[in-house]
Design goal:
By secondary structure, the protein is α+β, with helices and mostly antiparallel strands. The chain folds into two domains: about 140 residues, Sandwich (Jelly Rolls), CATH 2.60.120; about 170 residues, 3-Layer(aba) Sandwich (Rossmann fold). Helix content is about 25%, strand content about 25%. It contains nine helices and 17 strands. The strands form three sheets. Strands 1, 4, 5, 7, 8, 10 and 12 form a seven-stranded antiparallel sheet that branches. Helix 6 packs parallel to helix 7 and helix 7 runs parallel beside helix 8. It is globular and about 65 Å long.
């Protein structure tokens, strides 16, 4: 798909929500601040996108509670990270306060800043339906607070931390200003794209949550995204196939090659795809090659994926698609922090490649 066609598709998708219906949150559900004129509302009163299962151990977990005894311990542990989740809301206020409390005291990593690991990102929707960055909430401890200027009546989207766990989140607005929860629009594709993959999928090493590749794609296509990236642990185990099969996305994206050996790819990819296809006969499945800082296409693992892709198609697996890694990180070597994990430039480049492919697979609700 040519870039111009992709941009046109994105424009048509995003323009559907230029006007958003919303329901006011009952002020009686807010908590009055004894020190000023604000009401504090629990984030759970707003619209949360990016959560695949309702019955989770903690509200902002990415895996269902029943997965605790099914998946490996590292996968379960990473499932507590809030990667990909975002709160959508509207307000009559001109400024808001956000409080968020984290579980993990380690706010940053050697190759990823605290703003991405543990920070929050606020975006607002412009009149033409597109999302624009407002500011980042910078964490300094487990308990944090940040102020944001907003345009009254404009839809807002707040991304949660990529590599930390949110215990609680509150939004403070003046007592005489409404806070509202957007209502899902019939003109929008409300079924999510499900990304399953590695640390790169989870968001390593974006400078802030809104710059993760999955978040960029979600904004550009104006489609909800469920981020099931598990750092070092996207290995296509059978139990993960069973979990993903419980979801009902518009597209499955499988991007696990960085975490898998050639033998694991050969043994697991085919059965994983077949589990998804049996559960969701008509849902597109996109197989993604591993990105290469040298722009090598295909890599050794990518060649194995291509062979299995052809075998699956020959076996009658329909609506199966392949995404080449060509130009995912560019050709100048500047797209990563360490030869593997994308920086913001690399994330933007990946999102462009992903977006072109996914724009053709994400069906509008009336199709």
């Amino acid at each position: 798909m040519k870039l111009a066609s992709w941009i046109l598709t994105v424009s048509l998708l995003s323009s559907t929500l230029a006007t958003v219906a919303a329901e006011r949150v009952d002020p009686l559900k807010g908590t009055a601040d004894p020190c000023n004129e604000e009401l504090w509302y629990d984030g759970r009163l707003l619209l949360l996108e990016g959560k695949g299962w309702e019955k989770t151990e903690s509200y902002y977990d990415r895996l269902p509670a029943v997965a605790k005894d099914k998946v490996r311990a590292p996968v379960w542990d990473l499932g507590h990270d809030s990667a990909g989740m975002c709160l959508r809301f509207m307000t009559e206020a001109t400024s808001i306060q956000i409080r968020w409390t984290l579980r993990n005291e380690n706010l940053a990593m050697p190759h990823m800043p605290a703003t991405g690991v543990s920070g929050i990102d606020l975006y607002m929707r412009t009149n033409d339906g597109r999302w624009t960055f407002v500011n980042n909430g910078r964490p300094t401890s487990r308990a944090n607070q940040a102020s944001f200027r907003v345009t009254p009546g404009t839809e807002c989207m707040l991304y949660l931390p990529l590599y930390n766990r949110v215990e609680s989140l509150q939004i403070g607005v003046p007592k005489d200003r409404a806070l509202s929860k957007p209502v899902e629009s019939p003109g929008r594709q409300n079924r999510p794209i499900v990304f399953y993959g590695t640390s790169i999928t989870q968001g390593g090493c974006a400078s802030r949550p809104g710059m993760a590749c999955t978040a960029i794609v979600g904004r550009e296509l104006d489609v909800p995204v469920i981020n099931l990236g598990f750092s070092g642990n996207g290995k296509m185990e059978p139990e993960m196939a069973d979990l993903l099969a419980e979801l009902d996305p518009t597209v499955y994206v499988l991007d696990c090659l960085w975490n898998m050996s050639p033998a694991e790819i050969s043994g697991r990819l085919g059965p994983f795809v077949k589990v998804l296809r049996k559960a969701r006969p008509s849902t597109p499945i996109l197989l993604v090659e591993d990105s290469s800082v040298n722009n090598t296409t295909p890599t050794e693992k990518g060649a194995i994926l291509r062979r299995i892709y052809e075998d699956l198609k020959a076996d009658g697996i329909r609506d199966l698609h392949l995404l080449s890694n060509r130009d995912m990180l560019g050709t100048d070597g500047d797209g990563t922090v360490d030869g593997c994990h994308p920086n913001d430039l690399g994330m933007m480049r990946q999102a462009t490649v992903f977006g072109r492919s996914l724009a053709t697979l994400v069906a509008l609700p009336n199709h």
